[in-house]
Amino acid sequence: MNNTLTVRSTVLPINNTRAYLYETLFIILAVAFPAICHLTGAPVSFLLPMHWTIILGGLVYGWRGGMISGLISPVLSFLITGMPFPPMILPMTAELFTYGAVAGFAKEKLNLNAFVSVAIALISGRIVYIFAIYIFSNGLNINGYLESALLPGLAAGVFQIALIPFIAKF
To answer: By the 8 A CB rule, do 100 and 53 touch?
Structure first.
């Protein structure tokens, strides 16, 4: 008997009106959740609200859906809400693009379970984010930045690995 916990769901094709509407919903939620968190004073660096829907988009609609939502969401969020701040748009876009693409690729092409796909996406996205911050920082104290920006998000990462696969199943 296999006692491992797996949450398997198929990746939906992004080739019809319903899929486009759901992908649009992921993008809207990726813009709305951080805006609501900022308005209510919720700790955005601990919750990482935009990340959830991007990873979910990758799990549900594969690497293409994850890439689309990861590319569009930060730019659209900036245009609508002014967040993220301009110096963070490129690093965040690279990070979110990676989250969506890797989560979708791991699930769709490598046939990994959703938990592993989310974990690999989170690690990959953070590596890309750190690299992008380093490239675009122009003298930013990278160690201080990593401590203040990345460490608080570890708890969110654990919750994302634990919860997003269940959300994706539905």
So the answer is: no
